[in-house]
Design goal:
single chain; 66 residues; mainly alpha; 30% helix; flat
Length: 66
Amino acid sequence: MIAQVARLLQKNKKKLPFTLHIINSVQEEIGLRGAEMIAHRLEPDVAIVTDVCHDTSTPMMNKIKE
């Protein structure tokens, strides 16, 4: 979804009145390392966050419980 928004902005040559950063992060389930590092570096005024469901192939994850 986010990549599609970025693609359409570029395709339609849209100029935004603000800086847009599109970020993907990792390791959110084990300490928020990815998003925390990005937040400290960019210091955004606003953030829109999307999330997805868990990957049940993660080691030590109970597929039935999770």
